Amino acid sequence: MTKWIEDWFGSEYYTLLYRHRNDQEAKMFLDKLTAFLNISSPNRIVDCGCGKGRHSIYLSEKGFDVTGLDICESNIRESKKSEKKNLTFFNHDLRTLFRINYYDVALSLFTSFGYFQDDSENNKMIRSISGSLKKNGWFVLDFMNSARESKELVCEQKCTCEGIGFDIKRSIDSNFIRKEVHVSDKGKKYSFKENVKAYTLGDLEKFFTENKLEIVHLLGDYHLNPFNEKTSERLILIGIKK
Length: 242
Hints:
The chain is an alpha/beta fold. 30% of the residues lie in helices and 35% in strands.
């Protein structure tokens, strides 16, 4: 079930294709978010689906005690190069509990959720994250705005990065937004896939309620503007553990 996740998100081609991600925007978002929630160091933060650790590293620089978790072993090997006293990384499947009642804040950023086929498997992830939080701890789920994403879906896209060709096809099937990525590199061809469940706000609210998380804020972008289903770039749910 997880092989495609590890193959794609752990590949050098994924990193190359999304190298344009704006680190300054990510830092701005984390600055605004920690101020908005009045989170100060040395609170314990767990970054769920940390990738190669860009958010975790920045939060550690702000003085937080940060743990990064990711299912992709290659991502963790890379991120471990940045470990220090207040920053550690672990290869971990988020459907299972990592630590119990331990963290002040849990983050799931840049759509690091919804990749499992069954709702029950995705729910396990929310349950384990909730279990890792102290009472009154914060959980921030930064998800795509599925309504807008589905409406504005770009079905085919081609681009070249550093001489490597990418042919990307997107479709909607069985309530999943599916992506096929075909790579041409020095005469060799590689193919990857990405499937994310197009969860609505109502779906995600149900997951939160079932796992003792009370939603207190709904935001629509990294500037922390209110969520609007028709126009918002993102769907950011902020819940508190009860």
